[in-house]
Amino acid sequence: MAEQSWAKHVADVLRRNDIRLYATVPDYIVSHVLDVLWADPGVRVVTTTREEEAVGLLSGAWLAGHRGALLMQNSGLGNCTNALASLNMASMIPMVLVMSHRGDLGEFNPAQVPMGRAVTHILDALGIRWIRPTSIAELEQQTDGLVKLCYVSAQPVAIVLPSELTGGKRG
Amino acid sequence: MSPLTRAGATKYLASRLKNEVVVSNLGQASLDLLAIADRPLNCYTFGAMGQCSSIGLGIAIGRPDVRVICLDGDGSLLMNLGSLCTIAAEAPKNYVLMVWDNEVHQTTGGQATATARKASLVGIARGAGIEKGVEVRTQEELERAVDRILKEDGPFIVVVKIDKGPSTAPFDQDLIGQASRFRKALAALPAA
């Protein structure tokens, strides 16, 4: 797979902020970030069976002194909403959520569209601060600050990756 | 009726602990652990049903020098069976999953779970790839299992068949305080 500069930037910001543990249920778009991380012997990537499980795992890692990030498709947000609410928000356990924004501009699969529409509303309803950079310039401007906000607020934050930035997924 | 109770088994396990981390499942397991054997290296959970085993896995990965014992429930583990596959794949040697299996959803009023019918959690765990697993029904079997989990490499699953019945212990609402106390206690534990 050709290296995507946005993906390298995302991986670099996370690593620069001392995030060494990653959990994922893979997705085509975030797999560009995973490719960068899998090539790095200095980080650990755990593939879980479901996104909620990754939230539990990264929460445990935080309690053991490690920062973590969850890489997933936005549909996975639906699979881990309760854990984010009743564990991370209720007990103030931070983690960085990195998710593709399927179901938005250029989407080919109708099944992705309702969750594509819901994703930022779900994050808002949970009180999770999110960014949705549509260019490398916006990514550079916002991502580092968001990760710092995550740990100063001790709550999860989300980087939503739209097709304008990533090129999306074509049929 | 099982001769073992959750409170009795909790008390016995606690009497054997040194510097192990104990992660307790929401509801009954956490209430009993808090009342019977509160200690800073206990990680209570009162949210995210199903996630006890995964939270423990994250702690075990984060601190490979510390033995981590999860006290899960049958209803909760049944909600997150995929976790067994991840535990087997990551295979942390310092990881133990104990399950208080009373075959009911105790916290919601005692409705039967799948372990009351056909499901065997040790069998499912074995299929997921966790090779060390035992089901215990008596005090003697519990003591033998605790001997092993405190000594042998994991990952390990111990399903403890216990009597039904809710905890009578009080609930502590300070979840942020509990998490913070645990995190600081684990950070202060010198690397082994």
Keywords, please?
heterodimer; A: 171 residues; alpha/beta; 6-stranded parallel beta sheet; 7 helices; 6 strands; 18% strand; B: 192 residues; Rossmann fold; two-stranded antiparallel sheet
Description:
The complex is a heterodimer of chains A (171) and B (192). Chain A is of the alpha/beta class. Helices cover 50% and strands 18% of the residues of chain A. Chain A has seven helices and six strands. Chain A has helices spanning 5-16, 31-38, 51-63, 75-91, 113-126, 136-153, 163-166; strands at 19-24, 44-47, 67-73, 96-100, 129-131, 157-161. Chain A has a six-stranded parallel beta sheet, with helices on both faces. The mean pLDDT of chain A is 96. With 192 residues, chain B is an alpha/beta fold. Chain B has a single domain (6-188), classed as Rossmann fold, CATH 3.40.50. Chain B has eight helices and eight strands; from the N terminus they run αβαβαβααβββαβαβα. In chain B, helix 1 crosses helix 2. Chain B is globular, with a radius of gyration of 15 Å. The relative contact order of chain B is 0.20. The chains are: A alpha/beta (171), B alpha/beta (192). At the A-B interface, strand 2, helix 3 and helix 4 of A face helix 3, helix 5 and helix 8 of B.
Overall helicity of chain B? 40-55%
Structural class category of chain A: alpha/beta
Q: The biggest beta sheet of chain A, please?
A: 6 strands, parallel
Number of domains of chain B: 1
Termini distance of chain B? 41 Å
Average pLDDT reading of chain A: 96
Q: Kindly name the structural category of chain B.
A: alpha/beta
Strand content of chain A: 15-25%
Q: What low-confidence regions of chain B span 5 or more consecutive residues with pLDDT below 50? A: none
N-to-C span of chain A: 17 Å
Question: What is the CATH topology descriptor of chain B?
Answer: Rossmann fold
CATH top level class name of chain B: Alpha Beta
Fraction in helix of chain A: 40-55%
For the CA atoms, what is the radius of gyration of chain A? 15 Å
The helix count of chain A comes to: 7
Uncertain stretches of chain A: none
Order of helices and strands of chain A: HEHEHEHEHEHEH
